[in-house]
Amino acid sequence: AARRVLLLGEGNFSFAASLCGTAGTYVVATCYESEEEVSRRGRAAESIRLLRERGAEVVFSVDCAKLKDHFLSEKGEFDCIYFNFPHCGRKSGVVKNRELLAHFFRSSAEVLTEEGEVHVALCNGQGGTPADQPQREWHNSWQIVAVAAGAGFILSNIHPFKAETINGYQCTGYRSQDKSFHVEGALNHVFTRSTPLLYFKPVVCLIELESQKVSFQAPQVLADKINRDFLKLNSNHPVWTVKEKLTAELSQAFPLQNIDCCLSLLHQGHLKGVSHSNIFWIIPSPQETPSTEEMSSGLANAVLFSHVDFCRDTDKNVQEGYHMSKQYYLRPSLLPYAQAIIQRGTFLPGTLHVLSGPVFRKCLIAPYSMPVFHEMVLVCAVKRGTENSCIQMLVNNIKSSICSLQTVSSFKLNINLQEEKSFETLELNDFTAFESQLSKIKYFICMEKDTLGFCEKCCVGITRTAHYELLNGELVFVFASLNLDLLTMLICGIADWRMLWTSDKRFLSQFSRGELRLFKNFSLYPPSYVHDVSFWVPDGEKFDELAFHTIARWVSGEMVVSIQLIDSFQQAETGRKSLCYRLTFQSCDKALSHQKVAEMQLLFRKEISQHLHVTLR
Fold this sequence. Notes:
Blueprint: E1 3-8, H1 14-20, E2 25-30, H2 35-39, H3 44-53, E3 57-59, H4 67-70, E4 78-84, H5 94-108, E5 112-122, H6 144-149, E6 153-160, E7 187-193, E8 204-209, E9 212-217, H7 238-250, E10 256-258, E11 266-268, E12 281-282, H8 292-296, H9 298-310, H10 314-319, E13 328-330, H11 335-343, E14 352-360, E15 372-383, H12 387-405, E16 415-420, E17 423-428, H13 435-438, E18 443-449, E19 461-470, E20 473-483, H14 484-492, H15 505-508, E21 529-536, H16 545-556, E22 560-570, E23 577-585, H17 594-611, E24 615-616
Parallel strand pairs: 1-2, 1-4, 2-3, 4-5, 10-14, 18-19
Antiparallel strand pairs: 5-7, 6-7, 8-9, 11-13, 12-13, 14-15, 15-20, 16-17, 17-18, 19-20, 21-23, 21-24, 22-23
Helix pairs in contact: 1-3, 7-12, 7-14, 16-17
């Protein structure tokens, strides 16, 4: 079938005439004025005649804000809509033109195919994006990306509008007159539909725990992430591909054994180096499946588990009426599972054992701070006295493996091995192409002794040694922990960790057949919105900033990218303390409008008042 193209606001139809000759394209060219008014413009009559001769449809008196009224659904939706240099006419200001664009985008959404494109050409500076040179101040621009987001569109491409390359094109309509205007530096903005903003329902997980089937409510902040199965066999996800390629590279140097099965999501007991406040505490229910009543009242259950989630002390839960015989939490690391296997004596000396899977931790909102990521743990048992050579061999092979993967991107990694006191650090230093995206963060492998902590800023992970006396003699175990998500971001040029979790098929389609390549962003210059919230902290209580950030994560669906404390005040008379935080909202893959953010902010205020017992100002 021919590609249906709709052109709006044609001044003299010269652009439509140039496009009409394209093979496989059915053109519907329109303008706001009547045929009599348009025919008086230079070249308009000739262009209209040419369009009709070539089989195009020419329609007059079409309002871009009411497209559904002009084009009935039985004629089919449009694959592409062009609106070149829209304007309200005469000396209308930026506010009126934003309103025009807002009506246009909402109307276009009603007649566009699901995978269709909307092309809007604007003069230099009007759009308000960094692509404009020079870029106008935000309040003085048409704010086209934010306006389009209100109708569910994202900016997927932007390129110069080169009028000189369009055969026969002549711009007209300056201040509603038959006069040309300057199009030097003009830009064509290409918009596509965004996947909708999702409001995740509570998720009930069914697992086997200590030979008994149990269910538990996933923390709301993890509702869309806990069962994604990135690492399942033959997954197209780049995290899986990085893991498989790393494993294949390492298998060239070590006998290798995967231990990915039977690793429970829930863990019990003390984990050295991980704070209780950073853990997602869980109360499992001993039942095979949730009852109909429980499923229907899932929202109430989500609030209950959110309350448990925000408490710092699980003993308090028991005092408030929560009954559990044992304390469980979502695993913050896979290292304890490696230790458990070692203690069972099932390790083969000289073999590199590999464990991988998602791990979960509460954390403050920061560019590379993730509440869930995929960890790969490497463990090797060697005879005492040979551990240093094993460490060196493992480091060298991890280095070479990473270098072999980074060939998909256009930058080079500078990897240097350094020694510092009791541990060694392998740094992947800043490099030119990624410096602006990764800021000042350092990615490294560090080798420590006798610790089980996990370094928050660690992309390639931590390697450490531990000593165990086994029946067949003393062995030394070398551990390496790799953050596969951050490695994938580094290798594929993905600037935002949230993109790894997107439901938009345009992400995975770039990594089909297990290939790694440089990621091409499909949502450019997403708008950001700033909201402040101030409140009184309860007397005598320390404010729980981690819980504050966690609420912001789940209320916004990970749309909050920054939280900054901008003011702190304490009354001299009463001693009451007031805090003011600034929240920045921005999506990396979805259309986020000002209205949606305002709704999130209202809900956020309600939730912090209820859960943190603050008094809003």
